[in-house]
């Protein structure tokens, strides 16, 4: 019995000594394991410092740099990492981390033409195992990075990333609970805010949230126009059996643009305070289906291309309203697009255009209805062809407009 007591005492003493000296030996163990992992994945790892405290248990890591095999190309960087273990972890029989904070992480993502990401090799094969854990709070401060798709040669720059997650748990902990992340970042100069709810471990993935983007650069989408940076807001939802087979839907999509100026179908158009909205947008099989799009603009002007302002002064547009139905992106040329457009010209004039736009033939068959159009602005243009002077007058008409966008001279009015 005395020998058993001595044995237990030596064992407990050894455990206590190991626990008390953990700050001296544990950082070395972690550092060696991290270096071994980096060598297996063909990367070079640098760690500035690693500190472990016992009461309370806290790990602090400073100056982490992960490079490609060449030793020069930075893949991941981290200024500081701090994690503290909750005192009630023993009572819950699983690791509970009070707070995990990553300060100034840097990530450079690259996808090659074959569709493979440069970080794919870091994860390694999944064994399907793991262990349950809980992190009460996750924070990312001052993150930054870049994304380069070599196949399409597109670059995206990410700055000032702020991320907050109230609670993170493993798959083995709870399969039906929701994660609620929030994120702010500057992406290509635009300010992005996102709040979401995600159920990632259930038999069916589900998620929803709200997205807001300020200062959105629309110039790549409308190359023929000069467009002021816009603002976009929408609610989103997705669901499906796995991440590779998700159905996605946007609702309440709204895009606001202070000003659009450019050329459309042989006309120079200026619009202020442009509002574009879509009640529902669905992503199906690589195509984005908008259903119906509503357009509204104010305080603009319109005039023909190639005619000087002295010969044809711009017509004032007090208000523009439009609707396009059955629009999909990429745009299908097989199905004509139903178009409805109403313009308030001047104080009383109204011009309404409706009909199908045939993208395959690059033409349209439109019904035109005009009421109370003031003719005085076209007086300088009429003077080039006849000795006509309009002191005052209004025009009302109905007709059919046929023509081709590729050849403006073949438009006909009946």
UniProtKB/TrEMBL annotation:
This is Protein containing DUF748. One of its GO terms (cellular component) is plasma membrane. GO terms for biological process: regulation of protein targeting to membrane. PANTHER family: DUF748 DOMAIN-CONTAINING PROTEIN. InterPro entries: AsmA-related, DUF748. Pfam families: DUF748. Signal peptide: none annotated.
């Amino acid at each position: 019995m005395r020998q058993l007591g001595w044995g237990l005492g030596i064992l407990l003493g050894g455990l206590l000594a190991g626990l008390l000296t953990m700050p001296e030996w544990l950082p070395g163990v972690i550092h060696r394991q991290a270096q071994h992992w980096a060598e297996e994945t063909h990367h070079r790892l640098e760690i500035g410092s690693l500190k472990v405290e016992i009461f309370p248990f806290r790990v602090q890591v400073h100056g982490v740099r992960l490079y490609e095999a060449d030793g020069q190309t930075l893949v991941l960087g981290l200024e500081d990492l701090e994690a503290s273990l909750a005192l009630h972890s023993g009572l819950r029989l699983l690791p509970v981390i009070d707070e995990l904070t990553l300060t100034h992480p840097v990530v450079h993502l690259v996808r090659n033409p074959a569709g493979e990401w440069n970080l794919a090799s870091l994860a390694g094969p999944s064994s399907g195992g793991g262990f349950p854990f809980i992190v009460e709070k996750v924070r990312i401060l001052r993150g930054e990075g870049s994304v380069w798709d070599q196949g399409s040669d597109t670059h995206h720059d990410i700055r000032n990333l702020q991320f907050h997650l109230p609670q993170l748990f493993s798959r083995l902990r709870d399969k039906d609970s929701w994660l609620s992340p929030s994120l702010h970042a500057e992406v290509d100069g635009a300010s992005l805010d996102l709040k979401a709810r995600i159920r990632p471990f259930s038999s069916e993935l589900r998620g929803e949230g709200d997205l807001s983007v300020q200062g959105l650069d629309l110039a790549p989408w409308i190359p023929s126009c000069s467009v002021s940076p816009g603002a976009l807001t929408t609610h989103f939802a997705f669901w499906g059996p796995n991440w590779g087979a998700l159905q996605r839907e946007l609702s309440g999509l709204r895009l606001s643009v202070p000003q659009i100026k450019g050329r459309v179908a042989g006309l120079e158009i200026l619009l202020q305070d442009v509002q574009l909205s879509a009640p529902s947008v669905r992503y199906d099989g690589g195509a984005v289906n908008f259903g119906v799009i509503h357009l509204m603009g104010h305080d603009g002007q319109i005039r023909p291309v190639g005619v000087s302002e002295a010969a044809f002064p711009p017509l004032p547009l007090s208000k523009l309203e439009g609707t396009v139905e059955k629009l999909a992106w990429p745009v299908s040329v097989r199905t004509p697009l139903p178009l409805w457009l109403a313009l308030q010209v001047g104080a009383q004039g109204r011009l309404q255009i409706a009909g199908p736009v045939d993208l395959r033939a690059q033409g349209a068959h439109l019904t035109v209805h005009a009421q109370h159009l003031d003719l005085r602005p076209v007086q300088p243009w009429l003077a080039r062809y006849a000795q006509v002077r309009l002191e005052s007058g209004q025009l009302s008409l109905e007709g059919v407009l046929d023509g081709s966008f590729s050849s403006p001279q073949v438009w006909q009015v009946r």
